[in-house]
Amino acid sequence: MPNRRYHIHVICADNDQLLALDSLAIFFQARAFLTYDVSSKLPKASLYGRQCIDSCDYALMLIGNSYGAVQKSGVSQMHLSYLNAKAKLKPLIILIKNHQDGNISRQLQEFIKLVMRQGNQIYYYDKEEDIDQLLVQAYYNTLSSHKVEGGWARGGEEMIEFSRLTLSERFADLLSMNKKLNKDNVPKSDSVDESSAKDLTLKSSSVEEGLIKTEDADVPILADADSVAKPIALLESFPIRYSAQAYEGGNLTDVIRTMTLTWREVLVILMRIPTTFSSYGLQNVINRLIASKAERDIKKDMPNVHAVSRCQIFQDDLNQMQRQLVDANWIQITTYGTRVTQELWKLTSYAKNLLRNEDL
Asked: Which domains, ranges and CATH numbers included, belong to the chain?
């Protein structure tokens, strides 16, 4: 028996691949705790899926023969759970059934194309009975490449929870949290403009659906039922690692340094990005922020350096920063949809108002 078990949420379509789902249950019996997407016929299906994804350590998506029932949002529960898992930057294990004859719905075809375009690690199978052969490779590859802080550690005969509430505690708090949501989201300062207040009201009223609509009816934005999960202070500082090339006396040296940034600096540069941006766009603006400070930083150890170039934040540090921005409700993901080929993010009204209120 393993010493640590994780919570894995299984993303799947209604009543599809039942044999494969049973295989998952057997495989993970001693390895993980599983929750599953529930039938979209239940009124709380979307909210339940969101809460499971918020709490889980890893997500596993099983794409078989069905796209699932389309909800009011225009997408299925499987599609919506996938978007939520991506928005929360959850490590994903994706299993897709090969369809040699292409005898699947257009919606499922488009969804599979979307998942394939987004650089996910995908494992393919021909029959439900083949799932067992993939799971060992898929699961342990994911554990080694995406280490998470969490899970439950085994202590004697009992399971000891690590770094988070239990699922039952989380769900028990859900009702009281929703009752407080409208109150928490009401702006308390006159500095919040009318459009921001309207946005917050719309967000609160749409929690049960798990999304809100933009002016483009085809582009829903995922609303955050947790509001601010982990708030961060503007003047709080944090370290990041970066690499750069330093020029000194005609010689080029590759250097690796640690720099301290403040969240206010990050928010200021995010405010300068127009409308939506990709994760690559986020990386670019962070690199520019680093470049503006790197020469002075590097000269502390190399005083004869006359130029610095190719400043790059470490990918792990960028991922961690992005998770914190999501948890603090500073950025939120917009839908991918069938017309969008990459993840797109936007700054929230909550984040914009942090700077506005600071200036008062």
From this structure: 4-167 (3.40.50.10140), 237-328 (no CATH)
